[in-house]
Amino acid sequence: MLLVAVLAGVAAADGKPDDFVDVAAAIPDAVMDLRYATANNFVGEVLYPVARCKLRRAVVTRLAAAAKALRARKRRLLVWDCYRPSSIQAVLWKKVPDPRYVADPKQGSKHSRGAAIDVGLVDADAKPVELPTKFDDFTEAAHRGRAVAHSTEARTLEAAMTGAGFVGLPTEWWHFDAPDAYPLSDEPL
């Protein structure tokens, strides 16, 4: 078993930092609730052909550090969105052309670069905890400053994610960008 773990570590180290990695394989205790693979999202339509969360390898390394910090607080990551192909970003922009909440595909999104993640928290048993708002709430209650000021869970998430080097989006307490720079991608999920 130790040999398998060592070989897995070597294989991961052999990959390039900008390779796409499956987050569920890298962080198996993360709870996947990939909303755009279902109609349970703000546009009410299935946008992703599969429920798969991919991020750039270096971003997954940061996320694994955040997940480790959360485990120490008896929390686990709840993942709502990860890499988003550019073609799907264009569909979202057509439906909600508001740069406070959806990136203009001309400039691109960190999601479409594999360097952004939308996350919440669950407890150690994967049971819901009280979060500041629902995912994709476009009201001021979801703005980071307000959510973090009023929610212990948002503060816990914020500390873990910023401690791992992520930067939060001001209008969405659940959205975190890695500072790494990557090109836009339309690679399939």
Characterize this entry briefly.
By secondary structure, the protein is an alpha+beta fold.
Keywords:
189 residues; alpha+beta; disordered N terminus; two-stranded antiparallel sheet
Explain what the structure shows:
The protein is α+β, with helices and mostly antiparallel strands and 189 residues long. The protein has one domain: Muramoyl-pentapeptide Carboxypeptidase, domain 2. It has helices at residues 2-14, 23-26, 57-72, 86-95, 144-150, 152-163; strands at 20-22, 31-32, 54-56, 75-81, 116-123, 167-169, 172-177. The strands form two sheets. Strands 2-4-5-7-6 form a five-stranded mixed sheet. Strands 1-3 form a two-stranded antiparallel sheet. Strand 6 (167-169) and strand 7 form a beta hairpin. Helix 3 (57-72) crosses helix 6 and helix 5 crosses helix 6. The chain is globular, with a radius of gyration of 16 Å.
